[in-house]
Amino acid sequence: FGALVGEAQLRAAYPLWSAGRIQTTRWVSETLGGQAEILVAPGITPFTPLWRVTEAQNGEIASCDHRPLWRNLLRLIPHERVKNGAFSLQRLFACISEEEPEAALANGQYEMIAVLGTNSVADTVTLARRVEPGTRLFWAIREPQGAEAELRHKLQALPEALAPAFGLMVSCIG
Length: 174
Prior knowledge:
Order of helices and strands: EEEEEEEHEHEEEH
Number of strands: 11
Structural class: alpha+beta
Oligomer: single chain
Helix content: 10-25%
Distance between the termini: 27 Å
Low-confidence stretches: none
Number of helices: 3
Largest sheet: 6 strands, antiparallel, barrel
Mean pLDDT: 81
Shape: elongated
């Protein structure tokens, strides 16, 4: 089918092969026949109920449900998710939804927005995009173990007729 040969950090073109030959393009494609299922497992674990944003400006949220935001998030982040007294913001997401977290995750009716930063003095959280007051959201942590467990559960839930003969996994850092 095709493969990369080389390192992604190299600035020079790296060779690709398809059908047993080196290709001059930087991509290869192949049409796969049969039935295909797409399973997405973002591996997120919600740790708050559905909140309503009550104070926000640009991408910065100051309060949800009339409570200071960052102080409340720090209090609610599960302690077992904090490593050596620190928590990586790269794992924290606001999930926009009109549904409670469990229902939103089950039917895919949510939008994940990355956290860009926090301000402990102003008690705010800055998101990757603007969120207006009145927006409903829940907060979640993204974890590799969660993605693995979620994907395993989805694969086991497939009907016997759809048991996969093979799979392609695309990993992403979010």
